Amino acid sequence: WYMGKVNETQIANILKFMQDRHVFASIERMTYCPVDMEFAMSVIETIGTYRNPKFRIDDENRFVYENMVRWVHGDTEMKCVSPEKKKKVIPGDIAKGIYIAGNTGTGKTWCLDIMSKYTQLLNIGIKIVGERHALTWGGFRADAIIAEYQQTGEYYRFAKQPIICIHDLGTESTDALYMGNRMNVLRAILEYRGDRSDQITLISSNIPMEHKMFTDKYGDRVASRMREMCNYFELTGQDRRKL
Question: Degrees (nearest 5) of the Cα angle 170, 173, 174?
């Protein structure tokens, strides 16, 4: 780098260098019409009851679904909750991903799967580094990612996906073994994605984001980046599978 006086041409060249190499690349939302929440909730309930007639939106999950809709549509009025003060509602960030925590059966996986189907029906898209992507995601169980690594030694396909949804984070084995090498695969994936601003990560987990169990399993580096990566939600209530 030239350390003397920098002229406008050099500044332009530096900016082009950064753009060409996607330095600080970000997610660009493709704006649609304002959200019709009543219509959106109707569509979501239709999707949910098609999969399971017992599905319903109620006081325990409405906040999450409504703000997932705002996130999907790129509505800057989106809200989430504080990972530290769970009942404190704070502004969301449409450039971040999603982390939904909750006990078994509260509907975390269902929520992310239903919202993915919702985005497909409306053909919602985003731009990542100027390239259009459908804002939809395939779900991968954390233990299935571990199983694939143990068979192939490969995990970068998960780390490098522009949009990924990881279900049941925290239920997987901490150490995975391949050809005599042990590693914490999910920690490596989250570290990789945590250093980027051109990827979207969606997560469901039984472990709250700020819980000591999370730090113990994935380390301080991942824990410190998770807030920057994801909007945080919690689903509470009884096990919906038993309703």
Answer: 80
Please state, as a whole number, how many other Cβ atoms lie within 10 Å of the Cβ of residue 111: 23
DSSP string for the chain: ---S---HHHHHHHHHHHHHTTTT--EEE---SPP-HHHHHHHHHHHHHHH-TT----TTTHHHHHHHHHHHHT-TT-EEE-SSSTT-EEE--TTSEEEEEESTTSSHHHHHHHHHHHHHHHT-EEEETTEEEES---EEEHHHHHHHHHHHS--HHHHS-SEEEEEEETSS-S-EEETTEEE-HHHHHHHHHHT-SS-EEEEEESS-TTSHHHHHHHHHHHHHHHHHHEEEEEE-SS-GGG-
pLDDT tens digit sequence for 161-205: 999 999 999 999 888 878 878 889 999 999 999 988 889 999 999
- pLDDT value at position 64? 97
The model's pTM is 0.85
Compute and round to an integer the Cα radius of gyration of the chain. Answer: 20
The bridge status of strand 230-235 relative to strand 200-205 is: unpaired
